[in-house]
Amino acid sequence: MHASPSPQAALRALADPRRAEGLHRFFKTGPGEYAEGDVFLGVPVPVVRKLVRTYENLAYADIQKLLRTVVHEQRLLALLIVVRRYQRGDERERAALYRLYTRHFRWINNWDLIDVTAEHVVGAHLFERDRAPLFRWAAARSVWPRRIAVMATFHFIKRGDYADTLQLAERLMGDPHDLIHKATGWMLREIGNRDRPVEQAFLDIHAARMPRPMLRYAIEKFSPDERQYFLRAGRDGSS
To answer: How much is the pLDDT for 239?
Structure first.
């Protein structure tokens, strides 16, 4: 029986340079853009997900090596392994994986990496614990911990717990980055999908000072008349 290649080698073997070229543009990897220096191989996400089963039992040191790289798909694979291990692990392993995740924020540095993992590790871990770290991260200089803080609350929202999302949304209205506006608006929309009166009550108070992208994401599922009502109430801003 042949040993599996390293995860790095397996990903390189699946590389698609033409697809990678488009991903570099889509994920804003150019000079001065939010993901400057991120390197894509062009491996589709479903293909990366299939590799998780092959490499889910990697040693922690190897997961960290996979994560500490500029290659996007390697970081994605490492984080998806963390999610799978977290979901299957006992309390001791979950605590270790949470620490691994939260000590590597500098490598969890694109919105897709965050959106498919934060709720399953950070949100799951903090659901029955002190959630103060979310508010510390929401005040971070880097955009990525701020997005992790918001997206982690998706785990809470799915369980009918909205308070922290609403508090974070109020604090982040003055955030300068549209990646935070969009993530926060998305989470507000998810609250509304489950409890529209809760979302509407929040919008009645805050719509007038919400950044336009946040508001647009939040009201996406509203009727045309409702959307127009809140857009008229909202402040001017970029769409």
So the answer is: 38
pLDDT at 96: 98
Closest CA to 122 of 143, 160, 94, 80: 94
Instruction: Choose among 92, 38, 106: nearest CA to 60.
Output: 92
Mean pLDDT over the full length of the chain: 94
- CA 142 from centroid of its chain's CA atoms: 14
Q: Which two tokens stand for residue 121?
A: 């590790």
Q: Report how far residue 108's alpha carbon sits from residue 123's, in angstroms, rounded to the nearest whole number.
A: 15
Cβ neighbours around 225 below 10 Å, total: 7
Q: For residue 71, what are the β-bridge partners?
A: 39
Closest CA to 187 of 97, 171, 72: 171
Q: What's the CA angle centered on 173, arms 220 and 224, to 5 degrees?
A: 20
- Between 39 and 35, the more confident residue is 39
CB–CB of 220/199 below 8 Å? no
pTM over 0.85: yes
Backbone angles phi, psi at 71, to 5 degrees: -80, 115
Q: What share of the chain is helix, strand, coil (3-state, %, to 5)?
A: 70, 0, 30
Compute the distance between CA of residue 224 and CA of residue 226 in angstroms, rounded to an integer.
Answer: 5
Asked if residue 236 has pLDDT above 80, the reply is no
Element (H, E) at 202: helix 196-206
Nearest to 44 by CA among 23, 26, 30: 23
Q: Which amino acid is at 81?
A: I
Q: What is the pLDDT of residue 2?
A: 59
